[in-house]
Amino acid sequence: MEGDVISGFGERHNNVDGKVLQSFKKSFVDVQDILDQNRLLINEINQNHESNQPDNLSRNVGLIKELNNNIRRVASLYGDLSHSFSRSVDASSEGESGGTIGIANQKRFRSG
Question: What SS3 class is residue 16?
């Protein structure tokens, strides 16, 4: 799925640097790896909870902390992706307009 998004973006913005696309792909893979790990953590947390064994319930404290840290990492990666994507689109728009400010930038500075 992410390959379709990235390749579609590349088709519409031919002057986007290949390194940017590689960075996007790597970030999406990193996010997916963390989400896969979270799925395993959630399964283990649920099993421990259902067991009602004190040791398993105590272990859940650490697992939930790890899950929360993973969620923070995913949010950070998505934030970085969003920022990179915006910069790439802005750079692409500037390139297409011959160095003038793109429409997106004009909207940011429009008064009242």
Answer: coil
